[in-house]
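Sorry to interrupt, but I need a hand with the structure work. It will help me judge whether the discrete encoding reads sensibly. Write everything out right here, beneath this request:
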Amino acid sequence: MEWESSDDRQGGSLCDPLDLTNSSEPPTTSNITEHEFSCHCCYDILVNPTTLTCGHNFCRHCLALWWESSRKNECPECREKWEGFPKVNILLRDATEKLFSDVIQQRRAAVQANPKVSRSLLAFQRYGDNLGRSRTNQHKGAGFFFSGVLSALTFVAVMVMVYHWSSGVVEQHDLLITKPVSHWTAEEVVSWLENLGPWAQLYSEAFQQENVNGRLLLMLGEEELLKLPYNIESHAHRRAVLAELDRVKVLGVKPPQNLWEYKAANAGKSLFLLYALKRSPRLTLFYLYLFDYAETFLPFLHTCCPAIAHLDHSVESSFLNSQLEPNWRQWVEFLVKYLLLPYQLIAEFAWDWLDVHYWTSRFIIVNAMLLSVLEGCTLWRLLTRARIRALPDKMWNHLWKMLSQGFAFALLWPFVPQFVCNCFFYWALYFSPIVNIDMVVQQLMHPETQAP
């Protein structure tokens, strides 16, 4: 097969591969050479040819390498700035692939095998996607206006709800969280007893008749509870009352028994835990293990990894079981989930509180699922892009960032007003899943454009 010399083809047009000769007869493959489809950067046949506004064509990876090194939106040959984001010339690409399929396949394989070129292409594509999103946001028109109005109304609604909750009448059991037990009235003692569970209502009448206040409550022991007038004959009920009474004596106030009581007693700490569990659940659980073992970590572990021997889920035994040291099976189950699926632990903990916090628990479960997907996408990108060696550096940077932010947060939260803490708390609790849904959609729809 004869190939035409390139010196005879200087007048040809690269944009119209079919008009390659001055003859009136249809062109044939014998009139076309690879040189006429060469890139002016690498001087090899075009791969994914990209046409600029000036008319010059380059391999897409050559253009990406040029853009990454120069950070200029201009043609490598004539230096004319391009407009928008360059796209692949589909007509030219199909023509080269049909005429020189073997050569194109070899070049494409070589390009894909080069990690530096792959990173440049990803960076170039991310730049184009960000440019497209910014232009889309500028031309959203009415949709953008109504989205802003909706966001403003949402913010106002959150502020109004928080103000209502902050300035409303505080319930009786919320007062007991901060009120010293020695100052409890007889009505507050009965309220504390009834909050232990439905079983405790059997003995509330006796406490009410004896007019037991906070000081008298602190003096009660097992012998007094067993005899009249209290007459708590059930061994499990008596142990539960004594165990909860011991907690009251140690803390000096009523211990929190649900999410809202915990938040009311520890506004800053609950906000810190809410954000920290989202950003770094492993470090947060380790923090609870070191500094809040009996009060928070043990109940969390027993809830997520219950012991086989403790299948009794009655209210009177829940506290007693949560204070026992975990066995080795519980530790193994916890460590496996802690290392591989930390957000599943949070979802299992929220699932156990469905009866108490119906909608809140569901928000937490959905958010945990979304965060698990985001973490999985991040690990998948590290593995597929051969960046696993960068994982120790990323872990160290993340550890340092979380420690510095956590230390700053611990210093500042005593000075943050309760109203501000409530605003951030409810936003992170109820609106973070909405934000994470958008992030998951972006990860799944455009995984190649996400930074590793």
In short: The radius of gyration is 34 Å. DSSP finds 22 helices and three strands in the chain. The chain has a mean pLDDT of 76. The CA atoms of residues 182 and 371 lie 44 Å apart.
